[in-house]
Specification:
This is Salicylate hydroxylase. Its cofactor is FAD. It contains 13 helices and 19 strands. The chain is α/β, with parallel strands linked by helices. The chain has a seven-stranded mixed sheet with strand order 6-5-14-15-16-13-17. The longest helix has 22 residues, at 314-335. The chain is globular, with a radius of gyration of 21 Å.
Length: 383
Amino acid sequence: MRVLVVGAGISGLAAARGLIAAGHEVTVLEQAPGLRLGGGAVTLWCNGTAILDGLGVGLEGEGQRLATLSLRTAGGRRVLEVDLEALAERFGSAARVIPRGSLITLLDGGLPAGTVRFGEQVADLRTDAGGVRVRTRAGREYGGDFLVGADGVHSRVRALLLGGGPAPLTGAATCQGLTPAPFDPGPVTTLMIGRRGDFGFMGAGDGLMQWFFDVPWPPGAPPWGRPLEMLRRRFAGWGPPVGRLLASLEDGDVEVFPHTRHKVPSRWGVGRCALLGDAAHGMPPVTAQGTNQALEDVAALVDRLNTVSDPAAVVGAYSAARRRRAALASAVASHSLAVSGPRTLLQSEHLMRVNGAVPPRLATRGFGRLLHALSGRTPAARG
C-alpha cells in the first residue's frame, strides 16, 4: 500500500518506520526545510520505549535511563516514590529521558533516503474510493492509498478532515529548557508540587538536564517579557534544588509553551485518512503522556493497516482501539495537577504533609496500573 504521512516529528517518523517495516511504500511530507531538532527532552515510559524497540529504534546508551519517579512537596518533603526499575522488569522495557532532537535523528536514520520530502506544506487533500491526493502550497501533488495526519497540535490535516478551530488553551503554560546540569540528578525524575505551580527535573544524558515549571497563563494574557524573572519571583522560597537551578539559568534558556487540549474525537479521520499524535488528541504535557500516547497510536494504526483488508475500514477500527485510552490520558494530563483555583489547596505544603508519604510499593503498583490503563502494549493490556 502507498501511504502518505504528513509531518516529520516523532509520531510521523515513527509511523513511517513501522509502515515501511510492514512492507508499505511511504512518503513523508514535512513543511519545514529540514528536520526540526530543537525543543527539550521527552520522557518515555515503559510502553513508549517498548514500542520504539519494536520499531527497531534502540535506545540503549541514549539519554538517561530512569530508575525512580519521586514526588515531593514545594518544600522538598518526599510524598511518594515509584520504582521504575521494578516496572521495567515487569513490562520488559525501561523508562528513559532522551532529547527530542536525538530521538528524531534516530528515527530518521532508519528510513530509506528520500522518504521525507521537505518544504511540502499541505494546502488541500481529496479522498475517494480509489485513494488520497494531496496538493501542497508549492503546487506539487502526491497520491496514495492511505494518508496519516501526524502534523501536530496545529494540524492542517485535522482541520481539513474534521473542521473546527485550533486546540483551545487550558489556562496554563510550561516554561522549560534543556541545559547543562548544575548538579547530578542521577537516574531520578523529580516532580515538586505546590500551590503556585509545579517544578520538575531529570537528567537527559551527556551532562544535560531537562527541567520545567508549570504556571498559570489565562487565555488572553500577554506573554511574559522576561519569563526567567517571573519564575524566580514565583518560586522564591521553594525547597532545594529550585533556587540552584534557577540561579544557573540565563534569559535565553527558557522556552514557553501554552497548554492546549483537543477534544478527543470519536472517529480519528475520514475515509482513507487517519490522525495520530497531537493532531488527534493534543493534551497538556503534565504526566508526560503526549509522546507515549502518540507512539501507542503508531502501533495501533500499523496493526490495523496490516490486518484490516479494506483501507476505508481502517479508520473505524483504529479509532475504536485508541479513543478510550487516549481520552483517559488526556483527562489525567489535564486534571491531575492544578496551577490555579481552589484545587491548589490540596497541593499546599500542610495538606500534603498531613496526608503523609505513600509507601513505595503502593506507589509503584499504582503507577503500574496507570500504565496498564493507558497502554495497549503492556503485558496486562495484551493478556
